[in-house]
Amino acid sequence: MTIKGSCHCGATRFEVDEAPASVTQCTCSFCSKRGALWAYYKPRQFRLTTPVEQVATYRWGSNTVAHRFCASCGCGTYSETPDWSTGTADFDNPKISVNTRLLDDFDLAAVPVEVIDGKTMW
């Protein structure tokens, strides 16, 4: 079942192949200030449905993660990242992290939230 999402102004829209079964709250300084709850997808499971020109990028620290946000309203929409599940950056298996607060017709309160200690991990 395709789930659609968008930023506040609607200039940046996207869709994912399925609703997440759980979401992640990262405690790193960036995610904490952004307030995102993340769901992770393989690149083929994510589609940007508006022109890429509507999306701006922020990179920090190691520059390995491309944090995307709407160039008009500033909402943090998704990030492109290597797989970090082994503790190191696996660039051969990239992930798309989607800010689930932006998903339409999705009950965010119905899924469990896993807190990861990004404050000391990154």
TrEMBL record:
<comment type="similarity">
    <text>Belongs to the Gfa family.</text>
</comment>
<dbReference type="GO" id="GO:0016846">
    <property type="term" value="F:carbon-sulfur lyase activity"/>
</dbReference>
<dbReference type="GO" id="GO:0046872">
    <property type="term" value="F:metal ion binding"/>
</dbReference>
<feature type="domain" description="CENP-V/GFA">
    <location>
        <begin position="3"/>
        <end position="114"/>
    </location>
</feature>
<dbReference type="Pfam" id="PF04828">
    <property type="entry name" value="GFA"/>
</dbReference>
<dbReference type="InterPro" id="IPR052355">
    <property type="entry name" value="CENP-V-like"/>
</dbReference>
<keyword id="KW-0862">Zinc</keyword>
<keyword id="KW-0479">Metal-binding</keyword>
<protein>
    <submittedName>
        <fullName>GFA family protein</fullName>
    </submittedName>
</protein>
<dbReference type="InterPro" id="IPR011057">
    <property type="entry name" value="Mss4-like_sf"/>
</dbReference>
<dbReference type="InterPro" id="IPR006913">
    <property type="entry name" value="CENP-V/GFA"/>
</dbReference>
